[in-house]
Design goal:
With 138 residues, the protein is an all-alpha fold. It has one domain.
Length: 138
């Protein structure tokens, strides 16, 4: 009987060894397939990553250009506003003040002429009232 048990044990060991070898072969094949799939994925992903890098660098460049344009526009608006204020001030000092002064001189002359040629105001005539008008109903 002990030979029988030894034979069963030896057979079991052989079956376990065959299963282990088969598992190792299967694991090696699976590892190769996974490695091949990863290398194919890398080949497909590498151009995408390069394109994304290009796109992000172009987006950063476009953002910097847009920022520069906005700053220029802001500076232009500030300069324009300052110049409009300067023009309004110059217009006021060169046209409006002399016009006001001229108008004041004309008003003074008109006042002086009216004071010099002032006639006595005619006396208002007493209004003749018709006695029957207030009593009229109709």
């Amino acid at each position: 009987m002990s030979d029988l048990f030894l034979g069963v044990i030896a057979g079991s060991v052989v079956v376990m060894a065959v299963i282990q070898v088969a598992a190792i072969v299967f694991a090696v094949r699976s590892a190769r397939r996974v490695g091949d799939a990863v290398s194919r994925l890398e080949q497909h992903v590498t151009p995408i990553v390069a394109d994304l890098k290009t796109i992000s660098s172009q987006a950063a460049r476009a953002t910097s250009v847009a920022t520069a344009q906005i700053e220029r526009a802001e500076q232009l608006i500030t300069d324009l506003s300052r110049r409009v204020e300067e023009t309004a001030t110059a217009l006021q000092s060169s046209i409006i003040r002399p016009a006001r002064e001229g108008f004041a001189v004309v008003q003074g002359v008109i006042g002086a002429l009216s004071a010099l040629s002032q006639r006595p105001a005619p006396r208002p005539r007493p209004a003749q009232a018709d006695d029957e008008d207030p009593l009229f109903i109709g």
